[in-house]
Amino acid sequence: MTRPVGKIRDVAKATGLSIATVSRVMNGGKNVSPNTRDKVLAACKQLNYLPNPAARALSTSRSKTVAAIIPTIEHSIFAKYIASIEHSLAQRGYSLVIAISHGDLDEELAAAQKLLGMGAEAFILSGADHHPDLLDLFTQRGVPHVYSSIWQPASAAPSIGYDNTALARAAMDYLTGHGHHHIAVLHGPLTESDRTRDRQAGALAAQRDGLTLDFHETSLDVAGGKAATRALLQSTNRPSAIFCFSDVLALGALFALSEAGLRVPEDVSVMGFDNLDWSGETAPALTTINLPATRMGAEVGTQLMDHLDNGTPLGPVRLDGAIVERASVARRD
Hints:
The chain contains 12 helices and 12 strands. It is an alpha/beta fold. Helix 1 crosses helix 3 and helix 8 packs parallel to helix 9.
């Protein structure tokens, strides 16, 4: 049986408080005593009252909504990241809206225009590559925004993330330190992601005499990892290690090597990048790079709320990643 929906004046009457006080509670106002807050929330529950976001935006000129535009939701690292953003926002009465760009700058621009029309007050973008019209739009309207999943202290907007170049270089140093001198590198489309290009730069920075690097671009999924690994296995000079710029590519590599009758890591070592939730469950468990997705989500959410609520300046933050050593990389003499 449906219950009648209460209104804010009903909550005010039931609590003996003013509509303004009830509104402050529902909008997350700080100048409210715990007792008053508890009384209002209990009345809201009893009266089946929920605040109207559109009405709140009209009365306060604030929607308390932050938008995140991400390339995909197919990989668990984005799920972990988004969950962290949403959790940090919810602690202070903010809401999160999400759009998927599929790595396409035009789609990202269209999504941002739509989300602005819905009242989004600030934006979280992936990487530093964006449509110039999008950046002009944010500048003209004074829309706060940050770049995530990347560390570029000189970028147009504050970057809050990790140094993809340094992490890829660290992975290469790890592999060469284990005696690997012929390494195949699998990566997604370079034109679609500055994070991928940064990782390529890191791998190239490890180039030295006696080291052979073979780069293979493929689709950023398990099928792409399988296809690229099958292709490189056709070479008479097989690499001793495969470094993948994503764990999903590494999973495809593991499948292709198994199908070819090759053992990991005895015949070929495999290293990933991301430390997705299942990376420790593969056979063998995948050596990879852990990315600080949860910390990054909390940092971008907190910075944007502090800026919107108090005018605190946005600033770049570098978060550390780390190699997670498991069983898929062998030491070569």
